[in-house]
Amino acid sequence: MAAAQDGILEELRRLRARVPQLTGALAADVDGLVLAQDTPGVDPETVAALTGATRALAAQLADETGQGDLRELLVRGVYGYVATYAAGAGAVVTLLAQDRVNVGRLHLEGRRAGARIGELVDFAATDPTGPTGPTEQSERTEHTETTTKAPAKPAPARARAARTSRAKPTDTRATATAPTVARTTTES
Predict the structure, then answer these.
(1) Could you tell me the pTM of the whole model?
(2) Measured between alpha carbons, how far is 153 from 62 in angstroms, rounded to an integer?
(3) Crossing angle, helix 133-147 and helix 103-126, to 10 degrees?
(4) Ramachandran angles phi, psi of 147, nearest 5°
(5) pLDDT tens digits for range 60-109
(6) Rounded-to-integer distance, Cα 19 and Cα 36, Å
(7) How far is CA 127 from CA 9, 10, 93, 145, in A?
(8) How far is Cα 184 from Cα 187, in angstroms, rounded to an integer?
(9) Segments of the chain assigned E as strands
(10) CA distances (Å), 123 to each of 1, 5, 128, 175, 178, in order?
């Protein structure tokens, strides 16, 4: 996992270089333990633990409302943003950004970084010949199997409104009707 941590840290640093308004970036596992971090001035363990708890609640909310698996979470404060993105099956990326950040760019880069970091984490977790060794891998597999939950509920079907014709309504009045003339009289 040490090689994966180096790759994750490098990805976080590249991400901060691409989005200058980022004030911090960290990757954590879904339990809230830091995998790698670049968060000057912020306690990474606290942020990772809060991210893990918030992610769990947001995932439950998404599941209960039929929205599927959690992909991202955005919190806006007075001074900036905290954005969390899914990174594979077992990790998340949390970004801290200034209030003036372009949120679209934040999402674009955060999603890309989450995908790359997810690949690193998932590969490290499934490679039995990697630095963790086969014994730790089998223990991790057992833990993963016992914590796997039922699949998410399917999204509720949305009823579609029937389309109505946009043709102009036909005039039901007779075409041969004489125009009505109104007279006004004034007395002097």
Answers:
(1) 0.67
(2) 10
(3) 120
(4) -100, 0
(5) 999 999 999 999 999 999 999 999 999 998 899 999 999 999 999 999 99
(6) 18
(7) 19, 20, 21, 17
(8) 10
(9) 22-29, 34-38, 72-76, 80-87, 91-98
(10) 9, 12, 10, 79, 85
